[in-house]
Design brief:
glycolysis, Triosephosphate_isomerase, TIM Barrel, 246 residues, TrioseP_Isoase_bac/euk, eight-stranded parallel sheet, cytoplasm, alpha/beta
């Protein structure tokens, strides 16, 4: 697969962090790039404060339902009106904290695509699965739920983020070789849907990416950028990681 056909993407997931001061710092200090798609995903309450941003915005989650009597949820229409172009769905913390199934994640991804936005669909294995060498089987089931729900022509518009759960916020990082092995597996699974799908879909690595390891990770043939957690909370670190994706 020709990596040059896929523009690198770096997305920062602030999780439940941030404030108006950090928003202002990012709007002032973080510049957009023609070489790399840059996305910042703050908590939903801060999205409207990014009106001066030169980079893209993403939401951290969205409902699979349309507007209506769904207290506490946000629809794709609402997220879109707040200026988002991307939406993270199926992050491991959503799957664990809110018991989101792979089938629900697929429904959310479909709602995002139907609404004209780009889903960043997260997949990845916990430590016990990795230690049993069953990560491909585990991730394969997550992908199958996605493939069963989304037709090929829409699937090619998705972004997939591989996040080894054992490396999120732990300081542990999959080696470049480990990351590449799983990314290639994901691309091979996409190829079963269609070679053009596998060629187009960008696969990001997420799991304690830092300025010191970003270049080596992003240089792997099937790694098209990163979904960044803790290091996305400072403009210096996040800018350095974005530059590593050039």
């Amino acid at each position: 697969m020709n990596k040059e056909l896929r523009k690198p993407l770096v997305a920062g997931n602030w999780k439940m962090n941030g404030n108006r001061s950090l928003v202002q710092d990012f709007c002032k200090s973080l510049a957009g790039s023609e070489q790399v798609d840059i996305v910042v995903c703050p908590p939903c309450g801060y999205l409207s404060y990014f009106d001066q941003a030169s980079f893209a915005l993403g939401a951290q989650d969205v409902s699979h339902l349309n507007n209506g009597a769904h207290t506490g949820d946000h629809s794709v229409e609402m997220i879109k009106e707040l200026g988002c172009r991307y939406v993270i769905v199926g992050h491991s913390e959503r799957r664990e904290d809110h018991q989101e199934s792979s089938e629900l994640v697929a429904e959310k991804a479909l709602a995002v695509l139907t609404g004209g936005l780009t889903p960043i669909v997260c997949v990845g294995e916990p430590l016990d699965i990795r230690e049993d060498n069953k990560e491909q089987e585990f991730i394969g089931k997550q992908l199958t739920a996605l493939f069963d729900k989304i037709p090929a022509e829409l699937l090619s518009q998705c972004v997939i983020a591989y996040e080894p759960i054992w490396a999120i916020g732990t300081g542990k990082t999959a080696s470049p070789e480990q990351a590449q092995e799983v990314h290639k597996f994901i691309r091979d699974e996409l190829a079963k849907v269609g070679s053009s799908v596998a060629e187009k879909v960008r696969i990001l690595y997420g799991g304690s990416v830092k300025p010191s390891n970003a270049s080596e990770l992003f240089n792997q043939p099937d790694v098209d950028g990163g979904l960044i957690g803790g290091a996305s909370l400072t403009t210096e670190d996040f800018t350095a990681i974005c530059q590593s994706a050039n």
